[in-house]
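Practice problem: predict the structure.
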Amino acid sequence: MKFDLKISLLLFVLLFNRLAFSQSQYFEKLNLKENILQVADSYAIDGDWKNAILQYYEYLYRFPEDSIVPVIYYKIAAVYKRSNKLDLAQSYLQKVCDKYSDSKYDLESRMRLAFFLFEKGDYDSSLIYSVCQPEFPFKIITAYNLIALDEVSLADSILGIIVNEPGRHLTIIGELVKDLEVIPSMNWIRKWGAISLSGIIPGSGRIALEEYWDGTLTMLGFCGLCGIALITESFYPQLYYYVGTGIFLYYFGNLFSTFDASKRYDVRLREKYLKELTRKHSLKKVLCLEDPI
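Answer:
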């Protein structure tokens, strides 16, 4: 009986030691992970790109199957970007997209890649990539790329869809939505005021609508025609009818061109507002992409 008790106690002690050893190994491994990341992040913050990369590589070498390996790739890409090695940075973002397409990092990795292309000024590539993605955030990236490429009218139509998107609150900040809902347009007073001005002095309405060159030319053209009419009346009265008809057509053409100019002014007003909006609400902030370092 005593012998059985001793055996049981011995087995209990061995089991306890084994569990304690395993637990200490776990915490030691956990501390090592934290230490490597802290040192790597510290190097990156201080601008020591080479040592930061070496520390991140050490993490990948020691823990290749760790759950945060995609985050380490983001960190490496961020370091390469800060050190102006953009091709390497892009390759690591692409690696996350390729290797972790079935993980929780799938959407974020594709968003980061599209944003990276946008941020480095490769708007065409970012646009092509974003258009091919089905998720809602890529509509935002598409719109920002179109605005950067001065295709503001297309961006305007996409932003109109964004405002009415049922799930917009999941990815887009409320301030942007509010600003999109109040995109300005020209009021009727300015529009008909410009047309009235052109009715009084041809060309002046277009000047009021900020088409200074065309408006000035229209005004000078009308003055020239009036001068020709006076000369014709005095020296060539048989041609006065034709000159008068020309002035009549020119006058109403001036009114029509002012009406058309009001539409262009409205478009320019919206374009200016949308460009200011993209500067006010940075794409990174809209997409809620945090800096990995």
